[in-house]
């Protein structure tokens, strides 16, 4: 196994994740199998209990792991299926060492950060790198490891010490260290001092980078490259310019132009199997710049202050827009704004909803903004505006339908009103109310299209099922505590809204669709987590196709092809 470790300096939020994913994509384009590990030096065991406002979205894996959003970047860029072990946190490492100490595994020894914690980290990396994460189920050739935070943080020092030891454990031919840094521009000059200091800090810990990625608003100038090379003890052609480009999909191309793959092969003594050939990826990255048509989608959220809170949703919308060959114009709407102006339905937020071509209501927790989401669902239902509700957005559509079409006054989710006369969405019986971490219905579960007929007269089947290529069952990821109350399903069906997909027991509602509407779909699961740049998630693809006015022709074409 070859290891590529990436650390970062100067500031956080540099785009370390995109840089690493892009490097992985380039290596894949040379025929290598790649896997990825993210190290998060915080004490939380996982990201499940973290506020989206503070930390961005919680990314959910197939195995139910609730992780940092960078794992999403890896899965999307590299088309991987990671596990919770691929996200190493200080909390997890200490928890395991303390458990071993209590069991007596250390045979009376004094248990210390060095060597016990540092060994645990190294063992963890070696073990996890071998877990197959590629579609073919084979072990990877190269493992990318991102160390979160910045060099010099107290939190990350134990991981850097573990990695210092690790380079000798696995052999220096199998270990490549990279550093991602910031080159700010002041008075028209590219400044190298922060990078020099960052590398100095890293070297003082016994780690010397072989490649430096320079994040800069503009292309790195030759004198800047030379200066960094001189002061940071790195070959000049190993100082790479990662300047701003028109879209993130260009970054693997940027790295290819600077021959990153050749450096990696030389250092790690690997024979490339082919390429590099970025194929469809390169075509997509280059074509995007030339699209003229724009599609406007409103995202009705409550964590809008930090756009990373909805990262996978935004990515899934983008992937779907790419497949429709449209530029995405994403409009942010605060759900509470819709509530405040519900009588007049005027003001900036309502105008956005009225003028856009489609609406997405994503997942969320807590009362604030829920009624605004219900109002958005109502507006879309009544005005034939394409609507996709994900998790809480699905529950909002159910509540809206119950209140306004079935006339169940006061219908609600028990998450927001425990004494509602019509608990159309309620707490799942098996969930434990006493703890917070890792106790939801999490990870990949089956949804069967058990009632795919939308309209009895015509026999028309679920649009969503057709978008999933007419399969009978899909595997999507979940993260929820509440669900549609089965006691209300008959009533909902009688009203006209169809619950077309259910879990394997048939008790748990997973998909709702409104017949006769251009696209009105709600899903209890989170399809955004499995969307890929070249393979958009079907519910999102449907929303964008409908918003661009292409859904009918797409479905008609699909039907003739299947004949
Ligand atoms: N709060 C809702 C629940 O727990 C929805 C969760 C979500 O949107 N992820 O069921």
Automatic annotation (TrEMBL):
Gene Ontology molecular function, alphabetical: ATP binding; CTP synthase activity; identical protein binding
Residue ranges occupied by any Glutamine amidotransferase domain in the UniProt entry: 306-540
Superkingdom: Eukaryota
Top class in the EC scheme: ligase
InterPro entries to which the protein is assigned, alphabetical: Class_I_gatase-like, CTP_synthase, CTP_synthase_N, GATASE, GATase1_CTP_Synthase, P-loop_NTPase
CDD domains in UniProt: CTPS_N (cd03113), GATase1_CTP_Synthase (cd01746)
Statement: the UniProt record of this protein carries the keyword ATP-binding: yes
Keywords: ATP-binding, Glutamine amidotransferase, Ligase, Nucleotide-binding, Pyrimidine biosynthesis
Residue runs in coiled coils: none
Entry EC no(s): 6.3.4.2
GO biological process: 'de novo' CTP biosynthetic process; pyrimidine nucleobase biosynthetic process
The CTP synthase N-terminal domain, residue ranges: 2-270
Function comment: Catalyzes the ATP-dependent amination of UTP to CTP with either L-glutamine or ammonia as the source of nitrogen.
Family: Belongs to the CTP synthase family.
The protein's name: CTP synthase
């Amino acid at each position: 196994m070859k290891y590529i470790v990436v650390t970062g300096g100067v500031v956080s939020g540099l785009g370390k994740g995109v840089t690493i994913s892009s490097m992985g994509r380039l290596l894949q384009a040379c025929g290598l199998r790649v896997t990825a590990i993210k190290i998060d030096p915080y004490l939380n065991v996982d990201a499940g209990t973290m506020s989206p406002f503070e930390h961005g979205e919680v990314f959910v894996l197939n195995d139910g792991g609730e992780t940092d959003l960078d794992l999403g970047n890896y899965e999307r860029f590299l088309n991987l299926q990671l596990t919770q072990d691929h996200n190493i946190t200080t909390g997890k490492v200490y928890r395991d060492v303390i458990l071993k100490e209590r069991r007596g595994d250390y045979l009376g020894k004094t248990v210390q950060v060095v060597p016990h914690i540092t060994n645990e980290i190294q063992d963890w990396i070696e073990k996890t790198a071998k877990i197959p994460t590629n579609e073919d189920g084979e072990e990877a050739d190269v493992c990318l490891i991102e160390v979160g935070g910045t060099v010099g943080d107290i939190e990350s020092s134990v991981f850097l010490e573990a990695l210092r030891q690790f380079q000798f454990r696995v052999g220096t031919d199998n270990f490549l260290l990279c550093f991602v840094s910031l080159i700010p521009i002041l008075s028209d000059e590219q400044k190298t001092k922060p990078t020099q200091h960052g590398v100095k800090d890293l070297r003082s810990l016994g780690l010397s980078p072989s490649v430096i990625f320079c994040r800069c608003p503009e292309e790195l100038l030759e004198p800047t490259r030379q200066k960094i090379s001189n002061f940071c003890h790195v070959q000049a052609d190993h100082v790479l310019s990662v300047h701003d480009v028109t879209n993130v999909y260009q970054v693997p191309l940027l790295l290819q132009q600077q021959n990153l793959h050749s450096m990696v092969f030389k250092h790690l003594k690997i024979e490339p199997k082919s390429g590099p050939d970025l194929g469809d990826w390169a075509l997509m990255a280059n074509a995007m710049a030339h699209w003229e048509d724009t599609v406007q989608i409103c995202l009705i959220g409550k964590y809008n202050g930090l756009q990373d809170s909805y990262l996978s949703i935004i990515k899934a919308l983008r992937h779907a827009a790419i497949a429709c060959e449209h530029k995405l114009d994403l409009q942010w709407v605060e759900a509470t704004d819709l509530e405040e102006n519900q009588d007049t339905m005027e003001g900036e937020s309502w105008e956005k909803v009225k003028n856009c071509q489609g609406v997405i209501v994503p997942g969320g927790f807590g009362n604030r903004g829920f009624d605004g989401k219900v109002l958005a669902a109502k507006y879309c239902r009544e005005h034939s505006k394409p609507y996709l509700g994900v998790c809480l957005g699905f529950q909002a559509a159910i509540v809206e339908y119950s209140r306004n079409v079935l006339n169940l006054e006061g219908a609600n989710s028990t998450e927001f009103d425990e004494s509602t006369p019509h608990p159309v969405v309620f707490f799942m019986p098996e969930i434990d109310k006493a703890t917070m971490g890792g106790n939801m219905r999490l990870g990949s579960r089956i949804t069967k299209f058990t009632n795919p007929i939308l309209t009895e007269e015509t026999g028309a089947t679920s649009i969503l099922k057709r978008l999933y290529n007419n399969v009978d069952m899909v595997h999507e990821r979940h993260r929820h505590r509440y669900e549609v109350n089965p006691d209300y399903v008959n009533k909902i069906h009688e009203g006209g809204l169809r619950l077309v997909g259910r879990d394997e027991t048939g008790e748990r509602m997973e998909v709702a669709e409104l017949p006769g509407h251009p696209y009105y779909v709600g899903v209890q699961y989170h399809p955004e987590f499995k969307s890929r740049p070249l393979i958009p998630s079907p519910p999102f693809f449907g929303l964008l196709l409908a918003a661009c006015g292409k859904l009918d022709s797409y479905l008609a074409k699909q039907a003739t092809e299947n004949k």
